[in-house]
């Protein structure tokens, strides 16, 4: 069959065939990952997840480096759903100064918290926060089929979210990505925004000044507009440095940890001064707006900020 065909020509045919197979494979992967799929219609409604207890790590740098923290969280507890919180507009803030958080969800709503899982995360440098439930947010989603779906979703979702927010002059920030295994949910809260900012957002690492001019001035006006329900043009998340400093933060870790603890933890003697569900309900009765930044008790080994 190949009589009369030189070895060089035959080798060329093999190379072209391999290249064609590679291109076809990439095309199939792109299609499967959603290259031709549109994000869901952007809308205002109830966010896809409510109150959360989150084990998180904070970082500064390009947002495309967040994948390393997602991988680290997945290694510690593969079954947990993940959240990313992105605080700065990459079109306005230098990439090395972009602030973001990657977290693993320990509990949603009134779900019980596994103290052993908490300790696994804190032993690996994660911290613990409470994120509030909000009634309304700007929201869309995209199918999560492959890792490539994340890149496709980011490039499709954020321009539509930004356009929606600007068109309606909403005050929605910061942006969250919630990974539930089947979809990537993109949303930004329309209330209680300051409670989504971790303490590390306030200042530069090791410093005592706001990280950028945009941090220290732009948000003060935007936050006031949110409170007054004024129509303010909003591009991407603003950072509430000044307002965040006035947030009610628990004075002692012993008073702040109000997690529902699983029966297994109580039987193992791991309740270490953690309040029961009944005590939590009493606290909520006296103050429903407790700070979302309730940190893990020192007894459980919370790492200090580096």
TrEMBL record:
Q: Which gene encodes it?
A: 106051525
What are its GO biological-process terms?
protein-DNA covalent cross-linking repair; reticulophagy
Chain positions covered by the region annotation Disordered: 203-306
The parts of the chain that form a coiled coil are: none
InterPro entries the record matches: Reg_factor_effector_dom_sf
Q: What is this protein called?
A: Testis-expressed sequence 264 protein
Where are stretches of biased composition, namely Acidic residues?
275-286
List compositional bias (Basic and acidic residues) regions by residue number. 231-246
GO terms under cellular component: autophagosome membrane; endoplasmic reticulum membrane; nucleus; replication fork
Skewed-composition ranges (Polar residues): 209-225, 255-274
Top-level taxon: Eukaryota
């Amino acid at each position: 069959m190949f009589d009369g065909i030189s070895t060089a020509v035959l080798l060329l045919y093999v190379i072209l065939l391999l290249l064609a197979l590679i291109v076809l494979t990439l095309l199939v992967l792109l299609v499967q990952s959603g290259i031709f799929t549109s994000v869901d219609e952007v809308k205002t409604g109830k966010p896809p997840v409510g109150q959360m207890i989150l084990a998180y790590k904070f970082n500064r740098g390009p947002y495309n480096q967040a994948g390393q923290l997602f991988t680290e969280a997945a290694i510690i507890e593969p079954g947990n759903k993940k959240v990313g919180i992105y605080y700065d507009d990459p079109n306005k803030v230098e990439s090395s100064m972009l602030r973001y958080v990657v977290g693993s969800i320990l509990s949603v709503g009134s779900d019980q918290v596994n103290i052993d899982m908490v300790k696994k995360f804190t032993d690996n440098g994660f911290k613990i926060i409470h994120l509030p439930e909000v009634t309304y947010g700007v929201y869309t989603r995209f199918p999560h089929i492959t890792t490539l779906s994340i890149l496709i979703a980011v490039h499709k979702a954020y321009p539509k979210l930004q356009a929606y927010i600007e068109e309606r002059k909403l005050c929605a920030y910061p942006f969250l990505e919630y990974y539930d295994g089947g979809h990537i949910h993109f949303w930004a809260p329309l209330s209680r925004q300051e409670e989504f900012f971790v303490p590390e957002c306030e200042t530069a690492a090791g410093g005592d000044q706001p990280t950028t001019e945009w941090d220290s001035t732009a948000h003060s006006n935007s936050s006031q507009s949110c409170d007054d329900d004024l129509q303010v043009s909003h591009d991407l998340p603003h950072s509430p440095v000044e307002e965040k400093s006035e947030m009610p933060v628990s004075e002692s870790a012993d008073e702040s940890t109000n997690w529902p603890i699983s029966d297994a933890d109580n039987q193992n003697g791991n309740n270490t001064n953690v309040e029961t569900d009944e005590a939590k309900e009493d606290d909520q009765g006296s103050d429903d707006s407790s700070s979302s930044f309730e940190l893990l008790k020192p007894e459980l080994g919370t790492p200090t900020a580096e």
